[in-house]
Amino acid sequence: MKVRRYTGSSLEKIQETISKDFGEHAVIVNTRKIAKPGFLPGSSSTMYEVIAAIDEAMDADRPGLHGESVSPDIVQELLETSRMEYRGLRESILRLDEKLVEIDNRLNKLNKVSTVSTHEHPWLENIHPAWRERLAEEASRLAANGIVQYDDWVDALAGMIPTASGILFRSTAGSSPDVYAFIGPTGVGKTTTLAKLASQCVFTHNLNVGLLTIDTFRVAAVDQLREYANLLGVELQVAFSAEELSAHIESFQDKDVILIDTPGRSQFDKLGLKGIEDCISPQSDLSVILVVPAGIRREDANAVYQSYRSLSPDVLILSKLDEATRCDGLTSLIDISHLPIVYLTTGQRVPEDIEPAHPQRVAQLILSKQLTDSERKARS
Predict the structure, then answer these.
(1) pTM value?
(2) Could you tell me if 155 and 287 lie in one domain?
(3) 281 plus 249 within the same structural domain
(4) DSSP symbol at 224
(5) Residue 376: helix, strand or coil by DSSP?
(6) Is residue 210 a contact partner of residue 252, using CB atoms and an 8 Å limit?
(7) Coil, helix or strand for 344?
(8) Boundaries of domain holding 345
């Protein structure tokens, strides 16, 4: 093999010379740009250096060009460098192709899910907008053969819903009782929910329970709770101030569990909510349970939570599942509160109509309560 180095100011002329000298079988081994110093300081001109190879020896000298022999070692080094650059470039292209395929697949899945969710699965309108993309991706991942079924949506949504299967009510003999306060908007069923859990504590767990109420504003509120207390055979005390509440809690130190009922307040009743906060916030080691209806609307979820946030709720109970016609606010409430759901209530019967929360059950509740046609048109 004969190898020549060509230098010149024009690549075209160099290539023409190589073609004339070496013919169509010539191989370009390497090409690089070099700077040729000029006559004046700081001036230079651009030159090109091309190394070509052929099996036969040819004279490649031409005016304006210069060709000279190159040692085989240099040629071998240049060839090896070229091979390494080629392999690296090829690997980069392959990785880029794989990434493009992955992106394309994701876009296809999202486009497919978006079409399905809009036209075939209107229940997804109940999902908080910030959750929809993640829910769609997870449902697609769970889907067999790439076809998303109702159970895939349920399982995907269940994985996004925080729950705790009930409260661990326990004997606290020799230590302070566990104290729980029930808060929530007017008419959500706090008192009935409290009575259901008090019944479980007494009849299922055989615990010593004390009931307290600060709901002295609602007509017959105390009478309703007193009736439950008499049926359960537990003590009931009424507190009209934070000081009285503290005193009653102190007098119940022999109890295992203390349950506190509070007045229902609209999320817009700032003064009423401040009164509840002033009463329960001084109490130490108090767990706060926020009771909200399962049918809470999306436009109300944020206002309800922000209003009750100052009371530092620890968990959620969803009430009145039997009355919910649509559940488009639950995922919004969960998203902004990050609170786990511990119980679901399904009716007025005490103590039957309450169950520990399960993520699949909540997901089914959300996805099964659909918009009516008229409501869907109003939103579009």
Answers:
(1) 0.66
(2) no
(3) yes
(4) H
(5) helix
(6) yes
(7) strand
(8) 178-378
Residue recorded with tokens 């109490």:
283
List, for residues 155-214, the tens digit of each pLDDT value: 999 999 999 889 999 998 888 999 999 999 988 999 999 999 999 999 999 999 999 999
Encode pLDDT of 156-169 as tens digits: 999 999 998 899 99
Q: Residue 163 gets which letter from DSSP?
A: B
Residue 56 has pLDDT above 80, yes or no: no
Could you tell me the CATH number of the domain that includes residue 233? 3.40.50.300
The 3-state DSSP class for residue 10 equals coil
What does the alpha-carbon distance between residue 21 and residue 328 come to, in Å, rounded to a whole number?
Answer: 80
pLDDT of 295-352, one tens digit each?
899 889 999 999 999 999 999 999 999 888 888 889 999 999 999 999 999 888 888 8
Which DSSP helix (H) or strand (E) runs through 62? none
Q: Which of 150, 169, 245, 246 is nearest to 207 (CA)?
A: 169
Q: Centre a 10 Å sphere on the Cβ of residue 166 and count the other Cβ atoms it contains.
A: 14
- Same domain (yes/no): 230, 354: yes
SS (H, E, C) 170-211: CCCCCCCCEEEEEECCCCCCHHHHHHHHHHHHHHHCCCCEEE
